[in-house]
């Protein structure tokens, strides 16, 4: 099964050297049995055929979905073409831009940042995943069900047919979050939040379980 990675940003070079860039992180997350085609959409490489791959994954990014970059509009057009025709997964920025493309609303959240290991209610099951975001989906698109939530991020996961999106980062482990805090967070994220997040790092996350669920989602919805 071929997955098209719609890469919406690049990981900082020091972190990428240590942990890998998005293509490596997502391939590791969903596991074997998939071939990947990478489209660096943030550099203008936006494919125009939704059937080019068997499934699609929209990556994270340091950008905001509501920002006026010239690649966001064609990416949204592609998302609308893919939705309902091929399995589509969005993670963090991907979660947000998919929602926006399909009629939802994304904003810089007035409540601030969510950073580090967080608990989410995933359709009645409590899962723990790492977060790194300030933007949120405020209003889901029509027809979407909110499948993941917590007290801070109401719409942390959305689902509609062949489309599934989540706000947290199952591809980020504790070491990656620690690197983000050191290289990006200082001076950007309030220090009390960083200290709170740092205290969560030794605790386990459900990254592997989430990766397995995403792999199953791709396989089941490609049929």
TrEMBL record:
Q: Specify the domain of life of the species encoding this protein.
A: Bacteria
- PROSITE patterns per the UniProt record, alphabetical: GATASE_TYPE_1
Keyword presence, Ligase: yes
Which Enzyme Commission number(s) are on file for it?
Answer: 6.3.5.2
- InterPro entries named in the record: ChyE-like, Class_I_gatase-like, GATASE
Keywords from the UniProt entry? Ligase
Gene Ontology molecular function terms on file: GMP synthase (glutamine-hydrolyzing) activity
The answer on whether this UniProt entry bears the keyword Ligase reads yes
Identify one Gene Ontology CC term for this UniProt entry: cytosol
Stated name of the protein: GMP synthase [glutamine-hydrolyzing]
Source organism:
Palleronia marisminoris
Q: Which gene encodes it?
A: guaA_2
């Amino acid at each position: 099964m071929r997955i098209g990675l719609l890469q919406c940003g690049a990981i900082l070079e020091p972190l990428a050297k240590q942990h890998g860039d998005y293509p490596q992180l997502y391939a590791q997350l969903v596991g074997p049995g998939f071939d990947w085609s990478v489209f660096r959409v943030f550099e203008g490489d936006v494919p125009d055929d939704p059937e080019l791959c068997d499934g699609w994954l929209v990556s994270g990014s340091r950008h905001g979905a509501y920002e006026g970059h010239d690649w966001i509009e064609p990416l949204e057009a592609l998302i609308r073409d893919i939705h309902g025709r091929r399995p589509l997964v969005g993670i963090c920025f991907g979660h947000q831009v998919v929602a926006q493309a399909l009629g939802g609303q994304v904003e810089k959240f007035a409540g601030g940042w969510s950073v580090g290991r967080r608990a989410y209610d995933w359709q009645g099951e409590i899962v723990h995943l790492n977060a790194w975001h300030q933007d949120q989906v405020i209003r889901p698109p029509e027809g979407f069900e909110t499948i993941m939530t917590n007290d801070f991020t109401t719409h942390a996961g959305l689902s509609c047919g062949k489309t599934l999106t989540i706000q947290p980062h199952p591809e980020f482990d504790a070491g990656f979050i620690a690197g983000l805090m050191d290289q990006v967070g200082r001076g950007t994220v309030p220090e009390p939040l960083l200290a709170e997040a740092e205290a969560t790092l030794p605790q386990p996350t459900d990254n592997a379980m989430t990766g397995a669920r995403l792999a199953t989602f791709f396989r089941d919805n490609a049929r």
